[in-house]
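stuck on this chain:
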Amino acid sequence: MEQFDAIVIGAGHNGLTAAAVLAGKGKKVLVLERSTSLGGMMATGMLNGVQLPRLAHLLYNLNPAVVRDLGLKLDAKPMPTVALSEDGRHVVMKGAEARFADGTAHPDAAAFATLYQRLVRFGTLLGQLAQAAPPDLSGSLSLAQAGELGALARLGLRLRLMGKAEMREFLRIVLSNAQDLILDELADGPLAGALAADAVRGAWAGPSAPGTVFSLIYRLAQGGGAALPAGGMVAVISAFAKAAEVRGATIRTGAAVQRIVIEGDRVTGVELADGTRVSAATVLSTAGAAQSMMLAGHESYDIEAVRRLRNFRTKGTAAKVNLVLSGAPEFNGLSREQASGRLLIAPSVRAVERAFNPVKYGEITQMPIIEAVVPTLTAPDASGKHVVSAVVQYVPYAPDGGWTGTARQIVIDQVVGALDRFAPGLAGMVTASELLTPGDIESETGAPGGHWHHGEMSFDQLMSVRPANGLAHYGFGPAGLYLAGAAAHPGGDVTGAPGRNAALKALKEMAA
């Protein structure tokens, strides 16, 4: 039987980050990936002979500590967000700056800048909590827990140092809804809609839901920006894999783990789908929380832990539509550089809210919220064809009647039709298309419920209660087992922080 110091389940960016951190400290590490390719949600696919991002298409919120620790060299510059408008007056946003695409001033530019900068200030405070394990609020207070709680105390002190007015504003808005906050400051339209769409990205919620301001602040705490890396997402995952391998980690694809072996309430290794066993006293799982528990066996957990995880919300509402075009789309009112940005179709805050309502009843919304990129405008494919990669918000996991061929085509046609309104002629250039529903995403990647973040990024499912109180400190039940994926603190997006933090926790306990 092969023997390793640590086994990492999953070769997405979190798993590879964990492997690199462990191997960098001299540990013998094996990464096991069930798919035949690396990347997880960041994997690259082929459609009609053209390479494209299968799911994730942008680099969101990559953690600076991960970049530093892994020595990542990525050519990924921040990209503008372009809020498309039916009247042709598209809004280009670069951080706190908002202008019309033709360069003229937006009437809400000053109010937007003030609101955005305020949210970033609040987010900066929360961002400090992403660099380490969240405070452990279960059990008695140990010396280590006292140090972790000190991080919360420092957060409170920094908040007070911002002044009474800022502190009161933070407390006033932090658990409120994004719709009210945004419409208190901005006229409803594409600019406001773009901010609302970011507040509920991937969520089972509309912008009127309580706590959506916290979700927006929390995302800004992780950096908030999006980038389209040179070489695409394949270059990003290749950089993570290289960081792990140069430090000595072994990566195996096509190796599905069917069981985490537990003996005497501690990890002793894993068993693969073909019956092969690999020995290790430490296992880090980047699968979802419930899936990781199933791999270890429910008998390894008390009833309360099982109950809490059953209540962890993982309903995915984001689908993916990939299009191959025979030529380059031309967006009315946008330069080629602007069209190469992050394109958002979110006409208003109220439109985002209306788009969410049907999914609650298993219906397909008529006006989905769309985030699209055309990566081939900056990195042309050798074939001369172009790619549109679109994340479609508010698509039900299981619509009434199921995902028939007709239902799938409805969503594809909605996306093509929406884009064609802004880039006339695009519909006639589509040579191939595909839809990945939340169910498809779950089947392909293992993401629970097809949720891109392995669970809701809401106030009651973050920090010390992600994925549940008592299981939020990376240690996941049996001794030697750690949760290292998006279901762990600080959550989803391409941060690498869950993998890094879990690996650091494991190293500390391996040395004890």
In short: The first helix runs from residue 13 to 24. The mean pLDDT is 92.
